[in-house]
Amino acid sequence: MKRSPEEIQDLMRRVPVVDMHSDYAVELYRRESDGVSDALRREHAPALEAGGVSMEVLTVAGDFDIDGLRLWERRMMHGILDATRRQITADPDFHLVLDAADLRAAARREGTHFMLAFEGIRGVEDAADLRLLHAAGLRAIILTHNERNLAADGCGEPLPGGLSNFGRSILREAAELRMVLDLVHLSDPSFFDALDHWPFPPVVSHSNARALCSHRRNLTDEQIREIGRRGGVIGLNFLSLFIDDDRSRATTDRLADHAVHIASLAGPDALGLGPDYADYYMDAMQRWMRRDGLPPDTMDFVAGAEHVGLLPVFVHALSARGFSDGELTGILGGNALRVYSTILPDTPEPS
Ligand SMILES: [Zn+2]
C-alpha cells in the first residue's frame, strides 16, 4: 500500500536502515591529513541522520585507487582501517559490528553501527593476514574489484575463469572466521565457483538486475534465483549506469522495477539497499573519470535520490509499487541483518 512521505520518514526512524556498501572511510583518512580527526561525526553522521540510516558497511581497503591512493597497499589499508576504527570508537553513539550481539543492538537502532569491509583482497597475502585483519575488526570481504587478482576474476575480465586455489583457501579461512562474503564485482564463473565453496547465505551488496539493465556489474536471473534459494540478500545500487541502459531513464521508479524483478525471482526477503553513494568525494571521482576517459555521467546517481539524505525518496517509490510495511522493513535493513546474523558468531573470536 502506498505510504505518504511522512509515513515513510516515520518508518525509517523506527526500523533499522542498513546501507550495505559505502566508500567514505577513505575520506575519514584523507580528512585526518587536513587536521580533521572527527569527519565521521562532523561530516557524515548528519547525512546518515537525514537519510534515516542506522548501519553502514564501510569499505576500508580494496583493489582500486582513489586520487592515486592505492587502497590495497599495506600502509594505506592500515591507515584507513585505523582512522575508521578510531573515529567509531571515539564516539559513544557509534559502534563497530563485531558479533551477533552487535547486530541485535543494530536491529534495535541503539546508536549507529558500522561493519568494516574490504572491496577486493589484493592487499591480503595469506590466511594469517586475514586473521589479523579480522582481529582488527574486519568482518566482510569482496574477493576482487572488476579486475583479476590472485584470488578471483572480476566482471571486467574479457575471458574470466573461477577462483584460484588461493581464492578458495581465503574463502575457507573467511568461513572459519565467520566473515560475510560479498559476491559483488565477480565475473559470472567466479560468482558460481565462490558459491560452491561457501557454506553461508551469500551477499551481493551493490548490484541490480541484468535483465533490466545489461551492464556486466548486474546480476543475471540465474544468479538472483540462486541467492534467493540460499537465503541471501542483494543491495540495490543507485548508480544510473546500473539502472537503465539509457541513463536518462534512470529514475527512482525504474530502480523500483529492479526491486520488483528481483522480488519476483528471489522473494522480497532477498532485497536490501546498497546505494554506493559517492557524493562525498565527487571531486576525486571527476578526476578519475577524466584520467580514465570515462563519460562524465559515469557517476550520476538515480534522479531524485542522489545522496544518502534522499534515501526516503526511493523508499517512497518502492511503497508505491505495493511492497507492504513488513516487506519494506526487510528491504530497509531487516534482510541484510538476517543474513549477517546467520554468519557472525554470538561472541567475537579470541584475538
Ligand atoms: Zn563496488
Features:
351 residues; alpha/beta; TIM Barrel; six-stranded parallel β-sheet; three-stranded parallel β-sheet; 13 helices; 42% helix; globular; binds zinc ion
CATH class: Alpha Beta
Main beta sheet, described? 6 strands, parallel
CATH superfamily: Metal-dependent hydrolases
Cα shape: globular
Number of strands: 11
Instruction: Indicate the CATH topology.
Output: TIM Barrel
Rg of Cα set: 18 Å
Averaged pLDDT: 95
Q: What does this molecule look like?
A:
The protein has 351 residues and is an alpha/beta fold. The chain has one domain (5-343): Metal-dependent hydrolases (TIM Barrel, Alpha-Beta Barrel), CATH 3.20.20. 42% of the residues lie in helices and 13% in strands. It has 13 helices and eleven strands. The chain has helices at residues 5-14, 25-33, 39-51, 74-89, 100-107, 127-135, 165-177, 188-196, 221-229, 252-266, 282-291, 311-319, 325-343; strands spanning 18-22, 55-62, 65-66, 69-70, 94-96, 112-119, 138-142, 180-182, 203-204, 233-236, 271-273. Strands 1, 2, 5, 6, 7 and 8 form a six-stranded parallel beta sheet that branches. Helix 10 (252-266) links the parallel strand 10 (233-236) and strand 11. The model has no long low-confidence stretch (mean pLDDT 95). It binds zinc ion.
List the helices and strands and how they pair.
Blueprint: H1 5-14, E1 18-22, H2 25-33, H3 39-51, E2 55-62, E3 65-66, E4 69-70, H4 74-89, E5 94-96, H5 100-107, E6 112-119, H6 127-135, E7 138-142, H7 165-177, E8 180-182, H8 188-196, E9 203-204, H9 221-229, E10 233-236, H10 252-266, E11 271-273, H11 282-291, H12 311-319, H13 325-343
Parallel strand pairs: 1-2, 2-6, 5-6, 6-7, 7-8, 9-10, 10-11
Antiparallel strand pairs: 3-4
Bound molecules: zinc ion.
Zinc ion (ZN) binds next to loops.
